[in-house]
Amino acid sequence: MELTVLYWILVAVMLVGVVGAVVPGIPGPSLILVAILAWCVVTKFAIPILPLGVIFVALILSSVVEWLGTYWGAKQIGASKWSQMGMFAGMTIGFFGLLPALPLGGPIAGILLGGLLGGFVGEFLYRTNLPLSERLRTAGKVTLGIGFGSLIGNLIEVVLAIVAVAVFVWSTWSSVMWT
Fold it and tell me: Quick check: pTM over 0.85?
Protein backbone atom coordinates (compact mmCIF):
# COMPACT_ATOMS: atom_id res chain seq x y z
CA MET A 1 0.00 0.00 0.00
CA GLU A 2 2.81 2.42 0.85
CA LEU A 3 4.44 1.75 -2.51
CA THR A 4 1.23 2.76 -4.28
CA VAL A 5 1.10 6.05 -2.36
CA LEU A 6 4.73 6.77 -3.22
CA TYR A 7 3.99 5.92 -6.86
CA TRP A 8 1.19 8.48 -7.09
CA ILE A 9 3.26 11.12 -5.31
CA LEU A 10 6.09 10.58 -7.80
CA VAL A 11 3.67 10.69 -10.75
CA ALA A 12 2.35 14.02 -9.39
CA VAL A 13 5.93 15.30 -9.13
CA MET A 14 6.50 14.23 -12.74
CA LEU A 15 3.40 16.13 -13.85
CA VAL A 16 4.80 19.23 -12.16
CA GLY A 17 7.94 18.54 -14.22
CA VAL A 18 5.82 18.49 -17.40
CA VAL A 19 4.45 21.91 -16.43
CA GLY A 20 8.01 23.01 -15.73
CA ALA A 21 8.95 22.15 -19.30
CA VAL A 22 6.74 25.06 -20.35
CA VAL A 23 6.90 27.48 -17.45
CA PRO A 24 10.29 29.05 -16.73
CA GLY A 25 11.33 28.94 -13.12
CA ILE A 26 9.85 25.50 -12.44
CA PRO A 27 12.19 22.55 -12.89
CA GLY A 28 11.10 20.48 -15.87
CA PRO A 29 12.87 17.38 -17.16
CA SER A 30 15.21 17.36 -14.17
CA LEU A 31 12.24 17.02 -11.81
CA ILE A 32 10.93 14.10 -13.85
CA LEU A 33 14.36 12.49 -13.74
CA VAL A 34 14.64 12.86 -9.96
CA ALA A 35 11.20 11.27 -9.48
CA ILE A 36 12.10 8.35 -11.75
CA LEU A 37 15.42 7.85 -10.00
CA ALA A 38 13.65 7.88 -6.62
CA TRP A 39 11.30 5.16 -7.91
CA CYS A 40 14.25 3.14 -9.20
CA VAL A 41 16.06 3.36 -5.87
CA VAL A 42 12.98 2.39 -3.84
CA THR A 43 12.09 -0.54 -6.12
CA LYS A 44 15.70 -1.58 -6.71
CA PHE A 45 15.41 -0.78 -10.44
CA ALA A 46 12.31 -2.91 -11.01
CA ILE A 47 11.53 -0.94 -14.19
CA PRO A 48 12.49 -2.75 -17.42
CA ILE A 49 15.67 -1.52 -19.09
CA LEU A 50 14.17 -0.65 -22.50
CA PRO A 51 11.52 1.75 -21.16
CA LEU A 52 14.11 3.22 -18.81
CA GLY A 53 16.40 3.86 -21.78
CA VAL A 54 13.57 5.48 -23.75
CA ILE A 55 12.79 7.71 -20.76
CA PHE A 56 16.40 8.84 -20.40
CA VAL A 57 16.76 9.55 -24.13
CA ALA A 58 13.53 11.60 -24.08
CA LEU A 59 14.72 13.58 -21.04
CA ILE A 60 18.17 14.22 -22.51
CA LEU A 61 16.63 15.41 -25.78
CA SER A 62 14.14 17.60 -23.93
CA SER A 63 16.91 19.37 -22.06
CA VAL A 64 18.72 20.19 -25.31
CA VAL A 65 15.80 20.92 -27.63
CA GLU A 66 14.75 24.27 -26.14
CA TRP A 67 18.21 25.71 -26.62
CA LEU A 68 18.37 24.28 -30.14
CA GLY A 69 14.96 25.72 -30.97
CA THR A 70 16.02 29.18 -29.88
CA TYR A 71 19.30 28.85 -31.77
CA TRP A 72 17.49 27.60 -34.89
CA GLY A 73 14.98 30.46 -34.74
CA ALA A 74 17.76 33.00 -34.38
CA LYS A 75 19.82 31.50 -37.22
CA GLN A 76 16.83 31.23 -39.59
CA ILE A 77 16.21 34.93 -39.23
CA GLY A 78 19.87 35.92 -39.49
CA ALA A 79 20.50 36.94 -35.89
CA SER A 80 23.95 37.92 -34.74
CA LYS A 81 25.72 36.57 -31.69
CA TRP A 82 25.01 39.91 -30.04
CA SER A 83 21.27 39.19 -30.01
CA GLN A 84 21.88 35.79 -28.44
CA MET A 85 24.14 37.28 -25.77
CA GLY A 86 21.59 40.05 -25.23
CA MET A 87 18.85 37.49 -24.82
CA PHE A 88 20.80 35.60 -22.17
CA ALA A 89 21.69 38.82 -20.33
CA GLY A 90 18.08 40.01 -20.54
CA MET A 91 16.77 36.74 -19.15
CA THR A 92 19.18 36.91 -16.23
CA ILE A 93 18.48 40.56 -15.47
CA GLY A 94 14.75 40.03 -15.90
CA PHE A 95 14.72 37.07 -13.53
CA PHE A 96 16.55 38.85 -10.72
CA GLY A 97 15.12 42.29 -11.47
CA LEU A 98 11.48 41.28 -11.12
CA LEU A 99 12.05 38.75 -8.33
CA PRO A 100 11.88 41.28 -5.47
CA ALA A 101 9.01 43.26 -7.02
CA LEU A 102 6.79 40.33 -8.02
CA PRO A 103 7.95 37.21 -6.13
CA LEU A 104 5.29 34.90 -7.61
CA GLY A 105 5.09 35.83 -11.29
CA GLY A 106 8.00 38.23 -11.54
CA PRO A 107 10.83 35.82 -12.36
CA ILE A 108 8.77 34.09 -15.07
CA ALA A 109 7.72 37.39 -16.64
CA GLY A 110 11.28 38.67 -16.28
CA ILE A 111 12.73 35.69 -18.12
CA LEU A 112 10.26 35.98 -20.98
CA LEU A 113 10.26 39.75 -21.38
CA GLY A 114 13.92 40.19 -20.48
CA GLY A 115 15.01 37.60 -23.03
CA LEU A 116 13.05 39.20 -25.86
CA LEU A 117 14.09 42.73 -24.90
CA GLY A 118 17.73 41.67 -24.46
CA GLY A 119 17.73 40.01 -27.90
CA PHE A 120 16.27 43.16 -29.43
CA VAL A 121 18.82 45.45 -27.76
CA GLY A 122 21.74 43.16 -28.64
CA GLU A 123 20.79 43.05 -32.32
CA PHE A 124 20.08 46.79 -32.37
CA LEU A 125 23.53 47.55 -30.95
CA TYR A 126 25.21 45.16 -33.39
CA ARG A 127 23.64 46.69 -36.52
CA THR A 128 25.23 50.14 -36.18
CA ASN A 129 26.01 50.25 -39.91
CA LEU A 130 22.29 50.37 -40.81
CA PRO A 131 19.99 53.41 -40.77
CA LEU A 132 17.81 53.72 -37.67
CA SER A 133 14.60 52.44 -39.26
CA GLU A 134 16.40 49.42 -40.73
CA ARG A 135 18.09 48.70 -37.40
CA LEU A 136 14.73 48.73 -35.63
CA ARG A 137 13.15 46.48 -38.26
CA THR A 138 16.06 44.02 -38.20
CA ALA A 139 16.14 43.90 -34.39
CA GLY A 140 12.37 43.34 -34.31
CA LYS A 141 12.60 40.56 -36.90
CA VAL A 142 15.37 38.86 -34.93
CA THR A 143 13.34 39.13 -31.72
CA LEU A 144 10.40 37.43 -33.41
CA GLY A 145 12.70 34.68 -34.72
CA ILE A 146 14.16 34.08 -31.27
CA GLY A 147 10.70 34.04 -29.70
CA PHE A 148 9.28 31.68 -32.34
CA GLY A 149 12.25 29.31 -32.09
CA SER A 150 11.98 29.29 -28.32
CA LEU A 151 8.26 28.55 -28.55
CA ILE A 152 8.84 25.62 -30.92
CA GLY A 153 11.61 24.33 -28.65
CA ASN A 154 9.30 24.56 -25.61
CA LEU A 155 6.53 22.68 -27.40
CA ILE A 156 8.91 19.87 -28.35
CA GLU A 157 10.29 19.83 -24.80
CA VAL A 158 6.76 19.39 -23.41
CA VAL A 159 6.02 16.55 -25.82
CA LEU A 160 9.23 14.77 -24.81
CA ALA A 161 8.46 15.28 -21.11
CA ILE A 162 4.98 13.83 -21.62
CA VAL A 163 6.51 10.88 -23.48
CA ALA A 164 8.91 10.23 -20.59
CA VAL A 165 6.11 10.28 -18.01
CA ALA A 166 3.81 8.15 -20.20
CA VAL A 167 6.50 5.52 -20.78
CA PHE A 168 7.20 5.43 -17.04
CA VAL A 169 3.51 4.96 -16.17
CA TRP A 170 3.03 2.41 -18.95
CA SER A 171 6.04 0.36 -17.86
CA THR A 172 5.31 0.46 -14.11
CA TRP A 173 1.51 0.50 -13.96
CA SER A 174 0.96 -3.24 -13.79
CA SER A 175 3.57 -3.78 -11.10
CA VAL A 176 2.05 -1.09 -8.87
CA MET A 177 -1.65 -1.63 -9.40
CA TRP A 178 -1.64 -5.39 -9.00
CA THR A 179 0.53 -5.71 -5.91
Answer: no
